[in-house]
Design brief:
The two termini are 17 Å apart. This protein is α/β, with parallel strands linked by helices.
Amino acid sequence: MRILLADDQARVRSALELLLGLEPDMDVVGETTEADRLLACIKETRPDLVLLDWELPGLVANGLMNALRSLFPRLKVVVLSGRPEARRDALAAGADAFVSKGDPPDRLLAALRAIGQQIQGGSERDA
């Protein structure tokens, strides 16, 4: 699974890269630190999934999620946030999953694996 990281905190991106680098079926294909660059980064890297910081600078959540769904209908989006209470808003805006930055790494990996199965299932249906 090809993953794009969208988070303005360097230590979060580094931790995610280390964690995902240990997974043979997950490949970080790019990163961005601001919402203004997100759509361009998606076009450049063509990820299957975006790990999106809900507090990304410049993010207008509903507008961005609508644009993502319109421009990249098959793209999966997992929202990350240091505020667990953002879960409801993120899912209502169209995120495929939500993981708190305070959750253990296994929680994120489980969410990514579940979405990876959806992606594979979709590929098999498209064939």
